[in-house]
Hints:
The structure holds two protein chains of two kinds.
Chain A: H1 2-8, H2 11-30, H3 37-44, H4 47-53, H5 63-92, H6 100-104, E1 108-114, H7 118-131, E2 135-141, E3 144-151, H8 158-179, E4 181-188, E5 192-194, E6 201-211, E7 217-228, E8 231-239, E9 244-246, E10 249-258, E11 264-271, E12 278-283, E13 288-290, E14 296-304, E15 307-309, E16 315-317, E17 326-333, E18 336-344, E19 354-355, E20 361-369, E21 372-380, H9 384-403, E22 407-416, E23 419-428, H10 432-448
Helix pairs in contact in A: 2-5, 3-4, 5-8, 8-9
Chain B: H1 3-27, H2 30-58, H3 66-88, H4 94-109, H5 127-161, H6 172-206, H7 214-234, H8 241-264
Helix pairs in contact in B: 1-2, 1-4, 2-3, 3-4, 3-5, 5-6, 5-8, 6-7, 7-8
Amino acid sequence: MKSLVKFFASVRLAITLLIIIIIASILGTLIPQQRSPEEYLARYGQLGNLFTRLQLTKLYHSSWYITLLFLFALNIIVCTLNRFSPKIQKAFRPNLESEAKNILALKLKENFKKNSSLSLTKEEMKKELASHHYRFKEEKRGNKILILARKRILGIFGADAVHLGLLIILCGGIASGLAGFRTDLVFLEGETFSLPQAEFKLRLDKFETEYYPDRSVKDWKSTLTVIEDNKSLLTRSIEVNHPLSYKGLVFYQSSYGWNWENAKLEIWVKKKNDPSFLKKFELQLGERVSLGDGETQISLLNFVPDFVINEKNEIQTRSSEPNNPAVFIEGWEKNEKIFSGWIFAKFPDFDRLHSAKEMDLSFELKSFHAGQYSVIQVAHDPGANLIWLGSAFLMVGLFLAFYWPTREIRFFLEESQGQTEIYMGGISSKSREAFQSEFEKILASIRRGK
Amino acid sequence: MSESTFFLLAFVLYVLAALFYFSYLFSKRENLAKIGFVAALIGLLSHTLALILRTVESGHAPFTNMYESLSFLAWASVIAYVLIERKYRVQNAGAYLMLIVIALMALASSPLMPKEAAPLVPALQSYWLWLHVSVTLLGEAFFAVAFITSIMYLVAVSREKKGRKIKPGFTPEKLDSVSYRCIAIGFPLFTLGGLIFGMIWAYKAWGTYWSWDPKEVWSLITWFVFALYLHTRIVMGWKGRRSAFIAIFGFLAAIFTYFGVNYLLAGLHSYA
């Protein structure tokens, strides 16, 4: 047990672990993470299997990487605890220096005599040190006085605060990993979802995409209403970077899309030989309507928002944006198909209708309306608050460790024949130049007296 | 005058500063270093105006694409250097630091970098853009100064071994201590801006504070390297050569996080 504690209390272990974690983390950025087995096979061949078996393909979630992090945490805990009680002792129950020669062994030191009594000298020094915000601890032993003056004592605990912060952050990570969840909800305007994880329902009232003048997307906004017991409790508009938090769940604007399957398409029918003929229909996919002459019927079979023909000569949509909307139309006469083909909203004169006989009719896709759906990510992350708490400890600790170094001045005063001999020594772990100049200032005014 | 004029003026002044600093290194005349410092300061002023104009014209923070963020990193490096030189009198580092700044400025103005101020995509529309990027790059700027002084340390030590004389103000010990000072400033800034602000913003924008995205992992790696630097130095008493090597590796990791990840590894941070 003792040797185990000793093993985990060593800084060498911390450094070894740091180096291993650094190398492992680098490896994880070189091998693409969490792809399909086929992709690894194609990329690395037989090596791919080995990578999978060593969990290099989900490295940051692998048992061995997590074990490394745990060992590191354990190392931090043992190191901190090991040093904690001596530190507490040092901070709150410090020993006074009872030997003049120990003071003279310090780097920053001075030894001189003053023509004033012991108690007077001490009072003067006290005043001087207080003006530099030093706290004072003294002990009288016969004709000697031992004094410890210190400031910025919290600085001792800087590194501990940093390490505590890291541990809290790690706990936050564990909490997020074990108890957190996230799912995507796909909403159409007006739809209501009841959330399995909560007692309330969520309704999407409105979804809109805002564009810049150059048509690039400026923002997506969803107006959401929280419904509890059939009552609307609050309505809030969310957008990217501005989620809604409600009862431990956070709702993010995550993605969006078009509901093209239920698009309403406006079709105009004209006759080449009869300019006065014009019929307008608003149709959905699959609908079949008669043109009114009792014989011809048309139906819409397919719609693509961004028409493109790929290299295999197949019709596809390049994106879900309405960049080149096209609809596939069929014409029937007494159960006999007489024509079919694509018509384009942006190219009304260009139709690719295939017809068995000469056609008088022409068709235009005049307009199209489709609802947009909004993808809302629902997340519950019980670790997040721990992360922020840990981060606060981390930053406070870094500040204390780097910029709040404890300063300590020890004195040993001895009275003999009406004179007081003063031994004065200073200790500061960091920013020695600044401390030295303060030390010299204090020294000078003690020498001078008030 | 327009943004690009001020940018060009700053570029020219930085080149001048480098020339003066180099001639100071060869001639050892203090005045040349002082002129170099003044040139760098005026360049900084002009560069600041360029960044302000950019912000006013584009209506958003001046680091949303590679051109902007390179320019900002160069600016931050000059600030970091100016502060360090004032405090620690390391004017012999000026020449080399200015070389880094010039390289950043040249890369920013190369035709490979798109310069148009594009409107912000939804994910970047947040005040966290300001906080996250500016504080991180400022931290990295101090790492850059530490990188230079660490290399100078290694050179100075090998010179000393060969028995060459070294100016009393610029002993290897001093360079070693200045490297540490820079990291003592850069490390908290990088922690705050890169990791903590980054996590907060990711939480607000993506719904998760950590995704093991390559850029996130590399910023963690950078952080670990500097943690290694501090622990070996403070607890184990490593100084000098080994410390210098870790500081150099740390800066390279920071630069890879900033630059390399975008071009070599795919991930969420595809903006800049």
